[in-house]
Design goal:
Mean pLDDT: 80
Helix content: 40-55%
Strand content: under 5%
Number of helices: 15
Number of strands: 2
Largest sheet: 2 strands, antiparallel
Structural class: mainly alpha
Radius of gyration: 36 Å
Strand order of the largest sheet: 1-2
């Protein structure tokens, strides 16, 4: 699975901006308490200069150093940086810059060196800005992503809890569709899956394994199916992997496999011959059955491996106990007895 980014569990996304998470009423998993830029102190109790810096009266700046005036000035003069006021590390720099009259270049340089900036992705910073400047649009994006996730889960045939929380985390971290699917697949229970594209992909993988006579376990088929669902792999990629394994096992078929023939197709005449001898229905003989494995690789006169001939397949079928119960066996036995009777009848005893 991919690294989904953003840290933490998708059920409890981090929302550092002063975004009212109560707007997601009923959206399980969406949390986010605005951080306190004044570290628990009452702004009204602060000294005239709460930042420990002398006021620079000769430069244009806030009308006073009271927190509400400084914050208002920051919002009016620092554009999108103001969205980060409630991030403690960044908020302190913004307020200091406002009082000291920093330019945007100096401000940007200081902000980008903060621990928060260094450990926050561009997508998360964009989300923080959006929730501060346009919370309605943020809610719309989350609702849209939630609808997409619900529809995709239905197509896959899985049940996803906490869709709103997952949607908020996906938007906040700028996840791709593949990353959202990865998150949905992290805790699935294959025993409770409904029929959907995920179970269909698993069945396709098992079928491809059968085409190339490559044993594929249920667990492996599920892994391939999840990789296909998330876009990490394609069905063509699975086929290529199976073909490679088949060529390693049946080296004498490399040319045929490269031309697009499956191992099952190559051995179909042998399987059909066995079915005819044992009077079985089409498809009844599985060449991966241990009793037929000797048909897959014989040693030729040149010492090199080869497939069994149709004659060898016929002889193999007639050595099976069930052949004695076939009509062909009964007819053969009757004909043999008749021949013996005629021979002894002519010569006498």
């Amino acid at each position: 699975m991919r690294d989904l980014g953003g840290g933490g569990s998708w059920g409890t996304p981090q929302t550092p901006a002063p975004f009212d998470s109560s707007a997601y009423a009923g959206a399980a998993g969406v949390t986010g308490v605005p951080l306190d830029p004044y570290n628990g102190q009452n702004p009204n109790d602060l000294a005239v200069n709460p930042y420990g810096m002398p006021s620079l009266a000769d430069q244009e700046g806030p009308r006073s150093t009271r927190p509400e005036d400084v914050d208002a000035w920051v919002r009016d003069h620092y554009g999108h940086f103001a969205a980060f006021l409630d991030i403690p590390d960044v908020g302190r720099i913004l307020r200091k810059a406002a009082i000291e009259g920093w330019g945007e270049g100096e401000l940007y340089g200081a902000i980008t060196q903060t621990e928060w900036w260094q450990n926050t992705s561009a997508a998360q910073r964009t989300w923080t800005r959006l929730t501060s400047e346009d919370p309605a649009e943020a809610r719309r994006l989350v609702a849209s992503k939630a609808a997409d996730i619900k529809n995709r889960a239905s197509t896959l045939g899985i049940n996803v809890g906490g869709i709103a929380g997952l949607a908020a985390t996906a938007v906040q971290n700028g996840w791709t569709d593949a990353q959202s699917v990865d998150a949905m697949l992290q805790n699935i229970n294959w025993k409770t899956l409904r029929a959907g594209s995920l179970t269909a992909a698993r069945d396709d993988v098992l079928a491809i394994g059968g085409d190339y006579l490559v044993g594929v376990s249920e667990a492996t088929a599920r892994d391939y199916a999840e990789a296909i669902a998330s876009g990490e792999m394609t069905q063509a990629g699975v086929k290529s992997a199976m073909a490679k394994q088949a060529k390693a096992r049946f080296g004498y078929l490399s040319s045929e496999i490269d031309q697009g023939m499956s191992v099952k197709q190559y051995f179909q005449p042998i399987a059909s011959q066995i079915e005819r001898e044992l009077e079985l229905g089409s498809g009844a003989v599985d060449m991966m059955d241990s009793k037929w494995l000797s048909m897959l690789e014989k040693t030729g006169e040149d010492g090199k491996p080869r497939a069994a001939t149709l004659h060898e397949a016929t002889q193999m079928a007639r050595r099976q106990p069930e052949w004695a119960n076939t009509n062909k066996a009964q007819t053969t036995t009757t004909n043999m007895m008749s021949m013996i009777s005629n021979v002894f009848g002519r010569n006498g005893i």
